[in-house]
User: Fold this.
Amino acid sequence: MFPKPDDLFKQSFEQWEKQTADFWNAILRDPAFLKSAWQAMEMGLKSQQAVNQAVQANLETWQLPTHDSQTRILHQINRLQILADDLGQRLDDLIAALDAGKENSPQSR
Amino acid sequence: MTDSVDALGQLWRQWYDLWQTGYAAVWQSYAQWMGSLHAYHLGQSQVGQTPADEVWRMGRARLLRYRPTAAQLYPIPVLCVPSLINRYYILDLLPERSLMHYLVSLGLDVYMLDWGQPAAADAGISLDDHLSLYLHQALDAVLARSGAAQATLLGYCMGGMFAAVYAALDGSRVANLINLAGPINYHDEGIFSLLTRADWFDADKLVAAYGNIPAALLCATFQMLRPTSHLLRALYLFEQMDNDDYVRSFAAMQTWIFDQVDFPGAAFRRYVQALYQENQLVHFRFTVHDRLVDLGRITCPVLSIASEQDETAPARSVTILNDLVGSPDQELLMLKGPHVGMVAGRSAPKYLWPPLGAWLTAHSKIING
Assistant:
């Protein structure tokens, strides 16, 4: 007659979860909430940036490479590697085309 | 005296039976938990296991070719383009839940572009570079290896947008285009449209603070959308603890969910500003290295796959591609289920794979392998 305690618990839990999720979804879609959430996050970002800048300034004082300069150089190296790989590939294609041309030329027959 | 001995004997037997029952129950529970634990570990280790070889690499990205299993191969290879921020193996989650395995079994020559984990040095790699360098060269490698002049692009999630943009810019190399839950219109009712609105969201500040947008932040954002869902999933797991298949697939999915990758900073900035905030793609203002992307220039066969319950890429945001392309041969497949569930959930082998496989094979001519 009565539902099993396990089933009852599961049903109520599912109901609670759905209602909480709907409530949270409504909050998430509220522009006022989003604006204040972003403002709070912005404060965190600012303090993180301040720490980064302080570390960078100290490294520069000691004439050590900073995180930014390393990132910049590594990015340039990456791009050069990509371009070199691309050029290598094109060279291989050209050599293959030349070899194929030589094999098909009248002199080689 | 005899009665006392009998009573004592009976008491002993009762106690012994009780002890044995309790001992057996404890042992049974222990065995069940160990079995579940084993299934959990198995699920974690079985992700992305369809046999594949790395055939190309550039920086952090690599191209995988799934080993063909069919005697005959279709001549048009398929290049799968996943999202930049999730691991590619969502399309190859478990042996029985692998779209890749299914496509390979049909005789298709399937490749996967794995974007890899960006390092700090990759923060400057723009969205344009991802398209014109990484995707372009990966496609070069696919065509060179297969000997085909064109390939099918199958983009999932953000990869759907990548594939569509590429097809608009370099259509001569694209035989077919499949947009699997990839948003094209970014001004929709989806939650990400709202979260990234220019009124409050400043991508520049995030990139300035972090460089690459950390995977942990992206993961937290996804979890924040429905924080209580974890509790519900835990309840279902507890309920199905003795079901090894359930535990295994749960573990595989959890592994994928928490195995996210950083979003390269420059690409994130452009993605948010040009697409989410200005919706440039549908307004014909999106450019890649100063080349205007006109989706109307796509004339190859197009298949868009969307789900009515997808909150990450709402159906209308995906299907708008069919209105914008100039292809005479276009099809639309509407499914049910969430963004991830539609490709890797229990219903995927029934509702997604067969129509997708049929469309792909119909759009590729067969030759002797």
Remarks:
- The CA atoms of residues 40 and 109 of chain A lie 78 Å apart.
- Chain A touches chain B at residues 10, 13-14, 17, 20-21, 24-25, 28-29, 31, 34-35, 38-39, 42, 45-46, 48-49, 52, 67, 70-72, 74-75, 77-78, 81-82, 85-86, 89 (CB under 8 Å).
- The longest helix of chain A spans residues 67-104.
